[in-house]
């Protein structure tokens, strides 16, 4: 097993905190405070921050330092529009590669989503949802396409949590996942792509609604202060 360096450990922790929303958009990352927190020198902190910058998760601002990148509503929409097209393509390509075992695993994930929703373990849906989609995309037989989707998914991950804890959203997603699975089971890539595009387009609308709500709420808070 490969040893994880200090900078990689710090990078992994901060990446997850940014993507999960623990570290908010625009939040400053103080190097000396981070060094104290992780009980290391500032060198691995700077190296980890450089890695985060290369992933477009943080930026270095003059006279301010490292801050979590704030994506505009337009940025979010553009990223999701790209995701929709790429994920639709990957779904169509995967239709010819899905085995009966793959279909069975997709069905198990759908059932697991339903069980967790009934038991109100909504926090599990995000993980199950990721596994469902990646199970499909990894069968597209196009490594570059698959890696592009994973990178974009991680970049937009911090805009998912509020949606993925919503019962109506989970119910809709389970139905849509079932339609996608059944089209793949029939080997109908065109229909599977259509269902995937509809599924992702609905999510985009919900993400934009929530993002706009948060944006205008923050403006209101700023005016009050």
Mean pLDDT: 87
Strand proportion: under 5%
Q: How far do the termini sit from each other?
A: 52 Å
Reported for the largest beta sheet, the result is:
3 strands, antiparallel
Order of helices and strands: HEHHEEHHHHHHH
Identify the overall geometry. Answer: elongated
Provide the CATH top-level class of the largest domain: Mainly Alpha
How many separate structural domains? 2
CATH architecture of the largest domain: Up-down Bundle
What is the CATH superfamily classification of the largest domain? Answer: GntR ligand-binding domain-like
Structural class: mainly alpha
Salient structural properties:
3 strands; 10 helices; mainly alpha; Four Helix Bundle (Hemerythrin (Met), subunit A)
What does this structure look like?
The protein is mostly helical and 225 residues long. It folds into 2 domains: 6-68, Orthogonal Bundle (Arc Repressor Mutant, subunit A), CATH 1.10.10.10; 73-221, Four Helix Bundle (Hemerythrin (Met), subunit A), CATH 1.20.120. The protein has 10 helices and 3 strands; from the N terminus they run H-E-H-H-E-E-H-H-H-H-H-H-H.
